[in-house]
UniProtKB/TrEMBL annotation:
PANTHER family attached to this UniProt entry: PHOSPHATASE, ORPHAN 1, 2, PYRIDOXAL PHOSPHATE PHOSPHATASE PHOSPHO2
Keywords: Hydrolase, Magnesium, Metal-binding
Source organism per UniProt: Halcyon senegalensis
Top-rank lineage group of the source organism: Eukaryota
Cofactor(s) it depends on: Mg(2+)
UniProt GO molecular function: metal ion binding; phosphatase activity
Record has Metal-binding as a keyword: yes
Protein name, as recorded: PHOP2 phosphatase
Gene3D superfamilies hit by this protein: HAD superfamily/HAD-like (3.40.50.1000)
Record-stated family: Belongs to the HAD-like hydrolase superfamily. PHOSPHO family.
InterPro entries: HAD-like_sf, HAD_hydro_PyrdxlP_Pase-like, HAD_sf, Pase_PHOSPHO-typ
Chain sites annotated for binding Mg(2+): 8, 10, 179
UniProt KW Ion transport keyword: no
Family matches, as Pfam families: Put_Phosphatase
Length: 241
């Protein structure tokens, strides 16, 4: 009996958007208007690539970026929740599916020693170039019209489950914890025994409730959370059953 916990990262594990948090490294802690306005819907990764070039051009080095990223606050109750999951790994497999990048998530999880809680992290690959600039690439290519060009979280989840199934690992229940519009696609993939946990007041909760109003509700159960202690209470019930 094993449960799969799927976490988004920004505004879910951490209480901010890691990609906008890095702007604290920029001169005067802001980006020029031309750069800010260059974002095109569905092409966030390309936009962040331009942000990283701007930071590099302004002499922002890896150690300064790392110092800044490790000050990002965790969501209320999240430190306790991750501690709880870490102590109960025999019940939980735990993955992150995020539109952030490998460098930011790695820094943040290693600084708090939470990297061992997670079995895998699926996010946009990033690395520092020989000239010291941070570069980021799209996670994969996909054909989903609902999702940003670089990442369909449903595809990631489905491929992970298929791979686990080949290894003989099947889950009693999937618990999906997220907040954003790009979390709706994987939530719609969940089955009736699974549970979606959207963060209260964020886009995912609004989109799920809109679907119910349109009489096409999601198949899984839905439990809204405002603090990660709500999630922990639910997980405690799960492993008591």
């Amino acid at each position: 009996m094993k449960f799969l916990l799927v976490f988004d990262f920004d505004h879910t594990i951490v209480d901010e958007n890691s990609d906008t948090w890095i702007v604290k490294c920029a001169p005067e802690k802001k980006l020029p208007n031309g750069l800010r306005n260059s974002y095109q819907p569905g092409r966030w990764t390309e936009y962040m690539g331009r942000v990283f070039v701007y930071l590099g051009d302004n002499g922002v080095k890896e150690d300064e970026m790392k110092r800044t990223m490790t000050t990002i606050p965790f969501t209320a109750g999240m430190v306790d929740l991750l501690g709880f999951i870490g102590k109960n790994k025999e019940f939980f497999d735990c993955i992150i599916v995020s539109d952030s990048n490998t460098v930011f998530i790695d820094w943040i999880l290693k600084a708090t020693d939470f990297h061992r809680v997670f079995d895998e992290v699926f996010t946009n690959p990033a690395a520092f170039s020989s000239t010291g600039y941070l570069t980021v690439q799209n996670f994969h290519a996909h054909h989903c019209a609902k999702c940003p060009k670089n990442l369909c979280k449903r595809k990631v989840l489905k491929e992970f489950l298929d791979k686990q199934s080949e290894r003989g690992v099947n889950y009693t229940q999937i618990v999906y914890i997220g907040d954003g519009g790009n979390d709706l696609c994987p939530v719609m993939f969940l089955k009736k025994d699974d549970i979606a946990m959207p963060r209260q007041g964020y886009t995912l909760e609004k989109k799920i409730s809109q679907l119910s109003q349109d009489l096409s509700p999601v198949e899984c159960s839905v439990l809204v959370w405002s603090s990660a202690t709500d999630i922990m209470s639910y997980l405690k019930l799960l492993i008591k059953q």
